[in-house]
């Protein structure tokens, strides 16, 4: 086993199908391959420890008393009941640092454990929860209330993230904001992609229909209703043989089914089924402006598919306009960008090939190195602070 830092990772998603869960599983896999000691604490269907040696898991059962935001977004109001078991597990593991991935019930438990055991904290930013506060308000809510909800949520999150010695953030915009409002050092933490699973050779479509794809949660903050505008633009431009393939689940499923006549709603797909879906797209559209990175965008690029994204949010740090896809300043531009790619197949092919080349440079090993370097820095900072305190005394 390596002499790397002994870390307890409190993952606010691990078993679910979303970007946070994928990232946490890839960090666990990195630790396994490198022989690094890691304890992963997460919510699950039952309470039980598993694993042995340097790589372990602690699954904690969620209660029926929770706030339900989406199928994979819940806040267990009784999760703190597991604190005693968590403290015992973290002590037994001899953790030297705690990594918290978000402001949910698992993250709060990690914060309590770190405070109780006086362990340094590394925090990573994965979800723009402050923007969810605005998007989840009723449609009749005035603009000033939406702005206030977002601002108040951001202040609360900034206060929460101040407990970290080091913060990891996925894009330059959120990194700058966190550094400004927490006063903590912030390092960039991009995401990797499995270029063997997601590959152009997985394309096995037999028909010639122009296919626009979307993969992700079907929820308001993802702005998935804009897919109806894309479908309308295709029909108005004369691209009649087309369809919109939508992969994912969520509260907007019924609306999309009723309002996008060309839509084929595939539900949640995983593994090879998901890889074949990506490779079958001609264009990938990601209308969200709240995503901090956009794992789905990167998976589409690895599949050799050009991506059309909005001009704000994490995907702008992934997609190069006119090189690997199109970046739209306004929501109304999404349809025009897709129509352009439908009508220019050679241009579309070049963008897809460039997207694949760009994705091949983004590995999970590089992400793991960034994260474990942050762990080492956090321990060095604590050691330096203790040495300074002894000198003062």
CATH architecture of the largest domain: 3-Layer(aba) Sandwich
CATH topology of the largest domain: Rossmann fold
CATH superfamily of the largest domain: Glycogen Phosphorylase B
Could you say which overall geometry the principal axes of the C-alpha atoms support? globular
User: Helicity level, as a percent range?
Assistant: 40-55%
Number of domains: 2
Tally of separate helices: 13
Distance between the termini: 37 Å
- What structural class is derived from the secondary structure elements? alpha/beta
Order of helices and strands: EHEEEEEHEHEHHEHEEHEHEHEHEEHHH
Count of beta strands = 16
CA gyration radius, whole angstroms: 22 Å
* Main pleated sheet: 8 strands, mixed
Give the integer mean of the pLDDT values: 92
Description:
It is a single chain. The protein is 43% helix and 20% strand. The chain is globular. α4 packs antiparallel against α5 (143-161) and α7 (226-236) packs across α11. It folds into two domains: 7-192 and 363-392, Rossmann fold (3-Layer(aba) Sandwich); 200-359, Rossmann fold, CATH 3.40.50.2000. The protein has helices at residues 19-34, 83-93, 105-117, 129-135, 143-161, 172-182, 226-236, 253-259, 271-280, 295-302, 333-343, 345-359, 364-392; strands at 7-11, 38-44, 48-52, 55-61, 66-70, 73-76, 97-100, 121-124, 166-169, 186-188, 210-215, 242-247, 263-267, 283-286, 307-310, 325-328. The model has no long low-confidence stretch (mean pLDDT 92). The two termini are 37 Å apart. The chain has 393 residues and is α/β, with parallel strands linked by helices. It is built from 13 helices and 16 strands. Strands 3-4-2-1-7-8-9-10 form an eight-stranded mixed beta sheet, with helices on both faces. A six-stranded parallel beta sheet has the order 13-12-11-14-15-16, sandwiched between helices.
């Amino acid at each position: 086993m390596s002499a790397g830092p002994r870390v307890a990772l409190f993952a606010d998603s691990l078993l679910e199908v979303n970007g946070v869960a994928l990232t946490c599983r890839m960090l666990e896999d990195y630790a396994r391959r490198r022989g690094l000691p890691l304890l992963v604490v997460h919510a699950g269907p039952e309470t039980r420890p598993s694993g042995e040696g340097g790589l372990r898991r602690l699954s904690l059962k969620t209660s029926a008393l929770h706030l339900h935001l989406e199928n994979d977004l819940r806040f267990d109001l009784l999760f703190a009941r597991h604190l005693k078991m968590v403290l015992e597990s973290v002590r037994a593991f001899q953790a030297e640092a705690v990594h918290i991935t978000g402001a949910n019930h698992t993250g709060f438990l990690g914060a309590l454990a770190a405070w109780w055991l006086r362990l340094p904290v590394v925090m990573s930013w994965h979800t723009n929860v402050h923007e969810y506060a605005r998007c989840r308000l009723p449609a009749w809510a005035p603009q000033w209330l939406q702005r206030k909800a977002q601002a108040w949520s951001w202040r609360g999150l900034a206060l929460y993230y101040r407990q970290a010695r080091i913060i990891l953030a996925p894009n330059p915009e959120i990194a700058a904001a966190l550094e400004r409002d927490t006063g903590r050092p912030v390092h960039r933490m991009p995401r990797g992609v499995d270029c063997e699973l997601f590959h152009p050779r997985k394309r096995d479509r037999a028909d010639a229909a122009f296919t626009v794809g979307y993969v992700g949660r079907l929820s308001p903050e993802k702005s998935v209703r804009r897919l109806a505008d894309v479908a309308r633009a295709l029909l108005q431009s004369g691209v009649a043989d087309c369809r919109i393939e939508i992969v994912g689940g969520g509260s907007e499923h019924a609306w999309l089914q009723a309002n996008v006549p060309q839509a084929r709603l595939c539900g949640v797909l995983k593994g090879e089924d998901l890889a074949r879906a990506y490779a079958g797209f001609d264009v990938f559209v990601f209308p969200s402006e709240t995503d901090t990175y956009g794992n789905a965008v990167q998976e589409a690029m690895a599949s050799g598919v050009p991506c059309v994204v909005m001009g704000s949010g994490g995907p702008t740090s992934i997609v190069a306009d006119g090189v690997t896809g199109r970046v739209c300043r306004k929501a109304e531009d999404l349809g025009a960008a897709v129509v352009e790619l439908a009508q220019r197949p050679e241009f579309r092919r070049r963008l897809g090939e460039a997207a694949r080349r760009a994705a091949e440079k983004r590995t999970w090993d590089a992400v793991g190195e960034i994260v474990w370097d942050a762990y080492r820095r956090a321990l060095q900072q604590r050691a330096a602070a203790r040495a300074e305190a002894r000198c003062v005394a």
